[in-house]
Amino acid sequence: MAIAKMKKLTLMAEQQNKETLLRSIQEMQSIEVISLSDVLEEDILEQFEVADSYNETLDYKSELQDIEHALSYVSQFIPEPGMIEKLKTKREVLSLEELENHVKNTDIKGLISQVQDKEEELNHIEERKKALQEEESFLRKWRELKFHPSEVNGLKLLNVHIGTVDNEHAPMLIGGLDELSTAYYEEIFTRSDEIAYLIILAKEQEEQFKKLTTELSFRELKYPFELLPEDALYSNLNNQKSLHEKEAALKKEIKGWRSVSRDLQLAEEYNYNVGQRELAKDLVLNSEHLFIASGWIEEDKLDSLKHIINTDLGEDAVVIMTDDVKMEEFDQVPIVLHNNSLIKPFELITEMFSLPKYNEVDPTPLMFPFFLIFFGMIGADLGYGLLLWLGTFVALRFFNVEGSTRRFMKFLHILAYPTMAFGLFFGSFFGISLPFHVLSLQDDVIVVMVISVIIGVIQLIFGLIMNGIIKERQGQRASSYVDGYAWAMMLIGLAIYVLGSIVFSIPLVTQIGIGLALINVAGIIVVSTISSKNKALGFGLGLYNLYGVTGYVGDIVSYTRLMALGVASANIAMAFNLIVGYLPPLFRFTIGVVLIIALQAMNLALSFLSAYVHSSRLQYVEFFGKFFEGGGKPLTPLKTLEKHIWLKQKN
After folding, report:
1. Comparing C-alpha atoms, which of 113, 128, 146, 341 is closest to residue 229?
2. Among residues 15, 107, 195, 420, which one has the fewest Cβ atoms lying within 10 Å of its Cβ?
3. CA nearest neighbour of 238 among 148, 137, 136, 147
4. Does 93 map to a domain?
5. 208 in a structural domain
6. What is the torsional sign of CA 588, 590, 591, 594?
7. pLDDT, tens only, 594-649
8. Are 71 and 111 contacting, i.e. CB atoms less than 8 angstroms apart?
9. What is the pTM of this model?
10. For residue 213, with 0-12 CB atoms within 10 Å meaning exposed, 13-18 middle and 19 or more buried, which class applies?
11. Which of 335, 361, 377 finishes a domain?
């Protein structure tokens, strides 16, 4: 069983040691703190109370939001390293003490204020630029106006009007002005939507002009500048230039704030960590002098915890009590999977489906060999496998690939080996048939399909046997036979029948196969009847259970997808090679090289995607469905953020 054995942990210490203890737990990153208020007896709860750290948590959240905003803003201007450089750069590793000392010795609020000042300054520049751009657009339209509109105000005999009218109304305006005997007009500019005019007329015709312009929506010019349009435009452009230069200088200054960015990153780590400890305090019970904390921990990490607590607080500062997991707690206990380095990357397949419950088995090592075979049969190309191996090897060996990305790279690296192995088995190298092979994906399709079905039957039998073993351990003996062993024996009997009647033509073997299958058919009915209090109902359930044979037929047929996808991938690769091969020599070794690389890359991606998806599907539906329920929840320890740095864990 690859599920870590867990212990329920209870810690009791003096109030003055609460922060230090939670800090030690957080640095260990292996303990999930849980609430005690729901599990302790009422007479004990009367002596303690749950602390309310809402205000403290809110303060840290608010400061964390300010830090995140400042960091996000600064990051816009600091150039990101190139992909290769980024992959080669190792993330900094700090202890919790080193992190906290650095942040406490840095004026984080001052840095936030500094960033906010620059942000406000740049925002002001941006707003001013937009206003100047609008003014520029206005002035460019009116730059042909060679006098200031205020100069023509207050004339005794004449009125001067400067304004615009919509294009469709311009002919009517001109017609109306022509009817006025003293009117003079001149076009200043024309745009796609409007035309500007200078209009001069005698004062006695002002009423007629107003009546005309009201109907045509003539818009009088409102000129807010002291300078002429041409001069105002020149000043405007100079102001814009100055703003651009000031903006560039500010951005250049922020661009050099790498140290500021690093300090903000560490502050983000620190505030998140403190916030998590404040949340954990809400799960702790407190009295005037003592507090009690409880949680889950892996059994093999208990000694490490005791060592850390003794180092940080002293040997007698904390009372440590542990309890074994009770049966009624199986649904609540968090799950940690323990597998060796070869199988561990495949835990991601299990996690995508569901973690096992504490009383189940980890299906990862059981599924592991089948996943290798399925992926290899679908990929089934030596060239594709070599590329996958080389790409993942280079990433793991020469680049700083960490965390979940590293696990996924290891996962793909392991899968490269069965891909190459089946590529040799089927004699395929980038769709080119190798001179040596065991079977051919072009000529031996039926044989490959039979092999796929045989592998599928083996996995189904294995899953059913596991079902029987698990239910037998849980004390469900009748169910272990009816739902597990009996169906496994029936499939084995069917396999023996096929061997005896089709492969070897031995009547005795055929009869043994039929007999084994029929005995277990009868066994399902008999055991279902005996184990049920209502015998008639049990007999009916036994007959209904036999109806499940249709589902097993469907399961077996599902495994033929291994053949279908493997053959499809190989034939598509071969077809691409043929297409390029038909090109004339000149194009074949120029455009053809680029074309074949692109086509093979596309087929490689589709092949591996199909292999991943369909191999997972066969595990989830056909295999896991026979013995695995899932529903476990992962261990969520009190831990640090680890977004920008890695924490140096205590052990």
Report:
1. 146
2. 107
3. 136
4. yes
5. yes
6. positive
7. 998 999 999 999 999 999 999 999 999 999 988 998 899 999 999 899 999 988 87
8. no
9. 0.83
10. buried
11. 335
